[in-house]
Amino acid sequence: MSAVAGTVEQMFNHPLRLLASFLPLLLGLLLVFLINMPVSFTGGLLPAPALALACVYFWVLVRPDLMPPAAVLLIGLAEDLLSGGPPGLWAAGFLAAHWLTDRERDSFAGLTGVGALVGFAAVVLSAALAAYGLETVVYLRLAPVAPLLLHGVSTVVFYPLVALPMGWLLHKVVGPMRGGD
Amino acid sequence: MAGLGWRWTRGRGAKNFALYLCVASAVTIAFLGKAEPPLFDYARSTLSDAAAPALSQIRAPLIAVERWAGNVTTMFSLFSENERLRQENTQLRQWQHVALSLQNKMHRYEVLLNAVPDATSQAVTARVIGEASRPFIKTMILNAGTAQQVKKGQAVVDDRGLLGRVYVVGANTSWVILLSDLNSRVPVLIEPAHRRAILMGDNTPAPKLELDVSDGPVKPGDRVVSTGDGGLLPPDLQIGTVMQDGSELRVALSARPESADFVQIKAFILPPPPSATEPAPAVTASAPEIPLVPQATIAEGISQRPAPPAMPLQSRSPDEPQFDGQNEELDR
Question: Which of B20, B21, B22 to mutate to test the interface with A (most CBs of A within 10 A)?
Fold first, then answer.
């Protein structure tokens, strides 16, 4: 008990550290919020990407302690609720992505350039399969696959737009705020 | 057990347990979402009500950037676009004259036959503050809810045609299920064959048409309008045109959800049954001059369309443009 109390006390004595701990979750929620704006920068050519999934992938890869499964569940539920979709589907999809990324972190972390995109595409595929499977089981119907694939492609294409600022935040904000750990 | 204990001390077991717990929660929520939709509808409407001010604030600069990006691409096709619009405008003017004269004739016949008036329609004009085009859902969020008398099931239209219907209503926001959504089923009428069908969304831009068993030729290019069956959606709302896709018939939708900014939410109110004792209105040349469509009363953002008056229409000039009275700002 004293260890827990000490940890809590330490967190509140270092508010920046506390903020840094919640920053990935807040960023994930912000991306869910932004992607549900009625704006398409591709002129409707591509569906809205799951930017929050890119956020989950990035933080599970580089700082898994800052993106625990509970945070992923929250981001996924926010995505489900704010997009108007059936609840729980993308939450399960995001958790599948968390599982795969955490399990294969060493392999994914070593990827660069196009390889990094391919690695992320594998994670997007796992999330899509989990969401599609759950949708099929719960609603007893087969949803069209093409929109799901297009959604996945859109998410992979937009991954660098999320990864680059996240990398900057990791090195310039989260690292210093958490005392360089 | 020893192995489990060792894994727990390494922290991996606890992490896996958290992951499994979260996965179980997500699956439970998915099943609950099917079994108890109102629970999540309430959560959704509460969330959108809370997020509505922020959504409205953030969308303004984003819309500006989107318009700028759109203007850059349209700049190259400005001349040809202008030419096309001129031609279209000329054709539409001709159609306007035809429509006005037919409207006159129609009202004369209605008066002569003492026809039951069309159902009245109220409309709320709302702004699109959120939009989601996802693999399992096509929806949008509007900034009007129960406070503006929006109700579940009401039709939502843009300036081109029917977009969808309201499926969740919050205090100040409402959610629209689009016609292209996987869960959307709307009874429609195909003109001129007057054939009934069900428009079934399948998350593609052009929903499928499931025709009824009756006869009647349906061919690509035919108009598709709402039927008003079930008393929920107003009849004769423009939906789109029939198109052939292999062996299937689909509908090219008229409305453009991706470019919708302001939309109308239409309430459909069935008229009371005609009274058998009510005498037919007299049709005389000396009837007092009453405008065809009276001034719409707009109270708290709601405009009301009164039923057409039962009287001759000689007083109206056919060249004079007529507003439908549902929303004068949009009509202009």
Answer: B22
Counted residue by residue, chain A has a size of 181
Taking 80 as the threshold, does the pLDDT of residue A7 lie above it?
no
Fold (topology level) of B120-266: Thrombin, subunit H (2.40.10)
E runs forming strands in chain B: 120-134, 137-142, 155-157, 162-169, 174-178, 185-191, 195-200, 208-211, 223-226, 238-245, 248-253, 262-269, 298-299, 302-305
Angle, to 10 degrees, between the axis of helix B12-35 and the axis of helix A114-139?
A: 50
Q: Which of A39, A47, A68 sits opposite B18 (nearest CB)?
A: A68
Domains delineated in chain A: 2-177 (1.10.1760)
pLDDT tens digits along A107-166: 998 888 888 899 999 999 999 999 999 999 998 888 888 888 988 999 999 999 999 999
Question: In this complex, do B132 and A48 lie within 8 Å of one another by their Cβ atoms?
Answer: yes
In whole angstroms, what is the distance from residue B205 CA to residue A147 CA? 10
What is the spatial distance between Cα B220 and Cα B271, in angstroms, rounded to a whole number?
34
Question: pLDDT of A90-104, one tens digit each?
Answer: 999 999 999 999 999
State how far the Cα of A132 lies from the Cα of A152, in Å rounded to an integer. Answer: 12
The conformational region for residue B181 under phi > 0 = left, psi -120 to 50 = alpha, else beta, is beta
B43 contacts A81? CB cut-off 8 A: yes
Q: Where exactly are the structural domains of chain B?
A: 2-35, 120-266
Residue in B30, B31, B258 closest to A44 by CB: B258
Q: Which of A73, A86, A99 sits opposite B33 (nearest CB)?
A: A86
In terms of Cα–Cα distance, which of A73, A80, A51, A68 is closest to A156?
A51
CA atoms within 13 A on the CB side of B200: 12
What is each CA distance from A137 to A132, A133, A170, B201, B265, in whole angstroms?
Answer: 9, 6, 38, 20, 34
ipTM for the complex?
A: 0.85
Residue B200 phi, psi dihedral angles, 5° rounding = -115, 115
